[in-house]
Amino acid sequence: MGAEAAGRIALGDLEVNRLGLGAMRVCGPDVWGAPKDRANALQVLRRAVELGVNFFDTADSYGPEVDETLIAEALHPYPEGFVIGTKGGLLRPSRHAWDPDGRPEHLRRALEGSLKRLKLERIDLYQFHAPDPKVPFAESVGCLAALQRAGKIRHLGLSNVSVRQLEQARRIAPIVSVQNAYNLGDRSSEGVLKACGKLGIAFLPWYPLGAGRSLSLARVKQLADKHRVSAAQVAIAWLLARSPVMLPIPGTGSIAHLEENVAAAALKLPDADLAAL
Asked: Across the chain, what does the average pLDDT equal?
């Protein structure tokens, strides 16, 4: 069984399988530069689609500009029902730098760059990557809302935001997704997840495996042994059970890990095990 075993979730008027792919891991180390093995990277992206993954998460800052190019090279023209969510609002001046830039002039350039690299006339889901403390939040979101009205964005999402910022953005334009850090070891966005649940907004947990840290938790290891599955599958199954608006996007540059992650769509943990986690 593939990603369809996780069920379906709405992104505005679109619907995708409730297990996506965080495509950033096919870039070079530290999400910087081109992959060492380009053929393998393209194969991972294509294999994900074969496994029923029809939502990819990316951003112009991944590479930078590498990830979107790889997705288009691997899959364009895109299969029917395939949805790409990309993001703008972070700069990568160096390998370890992630600098917010929410200026409207930057967001307009970022969107145009994503459209060109992805070979699209409209982005299905465009997410504001991170609030910029130097730019009023409403100004950044307002710029994206104007680009949506211009027909270049189908649906708007947010990333790295608080409940208050979500509410503020919703007064400017409809918001269909929020992408915040969330995993077994980091539940600091629990309030945002609950708000999304009440509003019917998709919640995309980034670092859904805690960059591997969640997999070393003793209870995760115990349950993996108990059910004869991998620790990653336990962590993904927990996320899927956590909320019906959860859309996990585990990323990998390995086909073997990709297949393992997608298999978690069919893993249903008993209530007692979920409570233990």
From this structure: 97
Residues forming the active site: 62
Residues 259-267, mean pLDDT to the nearest whole number: 97
Let me know if 6 is exposed, middle or buried by CB neighbors in 10 A (0-12, 13-18, 19+). buried
pLDDT per position as a tens digit, 114-123: 999 999 999 9
Measured CA to CA in angstroms, residue 69 lies from 33, 128, 254 at distances of 12, 19, 19
Distance CA 160, CA 169 (A): 13
Residue listed under structure tokens 């070979």: 119
Per-residue HEC secondary structure of 180-220 comes to EECECCECCCHHHHHHHHHHCCEEEEECCCHHHHHHHCHHH
Domains of the chain: 3-210+244-253 (3.20.20.100)
pTM of the prediction? 0.96
CA distance 226 to 106: 50
